[in-house]
Amino acid sequence: MVEPVKVLTKRYELADGHTLQGFLDSGGFAGLRKALDMAPTDIIQIVKDAGLRGRGGAGFPTGVKWGFVTQDLGKPIYLVVNADEGEPGTFKDRELMERDPFLLLEGMVISGRALNCHRSFIFLRGEYLWPGVKLEEAIDEAYASGWLGKDIQGSGFDFDVTLHYGAGAYICGEETALLDALEGRRGQPRLRPPFPAVAGLYASPTVVNNVETIATVPCILERDIEWFRSMGTEKSPGPKLFSVSGEVVRPGNYEWPMGTPARTILEESCGGMLPGRDLKFWTPGGSSTPLLAAEHAEVAMDFESIAAAGSLLGTAAMMMFSNKTSVVAAVLNWMRFYEHESCGKCTPCREGTFWLSQILQRILDGRGRREDLQVLDEVCDNIFGRSFCALADGAVSPVKSSLQYFRDEYEYLIDHGRQPEGLEAHAGVVASNAGSDRPPSVAGGVA
Amino acid sequence: MFSPELKEKAQELVDRYPVGRSALLPLLHLVQHQDGYITDDGITECAQLLKLTKAEVNAVATFYSMYKRAPLGRHLVSVCTNFACQVRGAGEVYQRLHEHLGVAHNETTSDSAVTLEHAECLGNCDGAPIVSVDYFNYECLSPDAAVDLVDRVIAGDVPPPTRGYPSGGIRDMQYRLAGLGPVDAAQPGAIPDQATAADAAPPVQDSGPGAPGAVDAAEPADTKPAEFADADGGGAERRGPEGMTPASGEGSSERDPESPGAARTQDQEPGDG
Question: What is the pTM of this model?
Answer without folding.
Answer: 0.89
